[in-house]
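#onboarding

Welcome to the new folks! Below is a worked example of what a typical request in this channel looks like: someone posts a single protein sequence, and someone else replies with the predicted structure as tokens. Don't worry about understanding the tokens yet, we'll cover that in week two.

Example request:
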Amino acid sequence: MYLIEEQESLDHFLNDIKNEECIAVDTEFTRVNSYYPKLCLVQIATPSLIACIDCLCEIDLDGLWKLIFDKKIEKVMHSCSQDLEIFFLMNNGIPENIFDTQIAAAFIGHSSQVGFKELLEEELNVKIEKSQTRSDWSKRPLAKAQLEYAFDDVEDLIELANSIKDKLIELDRHKWVKEECEDLINKRIGLMDTSEIWKKTKGIKKLKNTQLRTAILVSKWREEKASEKDVPRKWLIDDHEIISIAKKENLSPEAMHDLISSNRLRKEEIIKLNHFLEFSEENTLSSGRLNKGKRIKDDDMSAVSNYLESRSIELQISKEVLGSKKDMQNFIANRAGKLSKGWRRELLFKDLENLLN
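Example response:
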């Protein structure tokens, strides 16, 4: 186990592991005071080597990205969504050939959100500390406890993956997990796609028509400004302030200024926001309604939900993995979405069709 802070050490390490078929990968980052996540560490482990690469040192990471984006090398990760977001922001792409142990564990009886510590203990009887979860990874030098935490996150990850894979093969579900992990390449979470981040604005789902349009526009404007200034979006305008602005008609810049508590927006910027709302021609409602498609009958929704609940118990796979509320709505409305594709189609489609016909 060693910390890499110099180019020569990184190049040597990458050369040592370039022929590996499988590596464990994790990242540590901060984003408390910024819009964009700041990558601080990348941890890489093979069956015989473990290293933490300090990404805040002045070293060229191109070789590291080449390794991570090599399709021939399997990357074992746990709950990798935020890691993939960082990879995407830094490389404009997502690496292929990923095995996510959290996704896979859901197919052998674990919760769909099972944590790494719990999974390690249950599968391998390995206990680790998670005391540095909220640590400041940008602070240097790194503390001994931080490094131990970072090493722990990858040290047993490959062995854990192998244990899960053995059980998946016994259950004949390895292809299901492969399909789920391959689908990661198509997902756009967090800052990979900000076009619908407005939906996360608290209280926005209760608004309608003009108020909804205004709230969407303010949310999108806030997102653009937060990106430009690299500060958390709520540092500029809080969610409840967006709702307050949306509920007021024909606000003057002065009145809008009174509703915004942040001192990070200049008076000129609030004037521009006011002007943007007044003259925007963006058809936000037609492009981003909260509820699309035909009305879903309560009886149909209950029937599908109860069926998935029953199958989840039978298969010992959480209901959320089989299908979310949105997945159920999509299927009922037009037989689209997850429930009509891949392993879910083979397993569930015929029964669901019979339920609704």
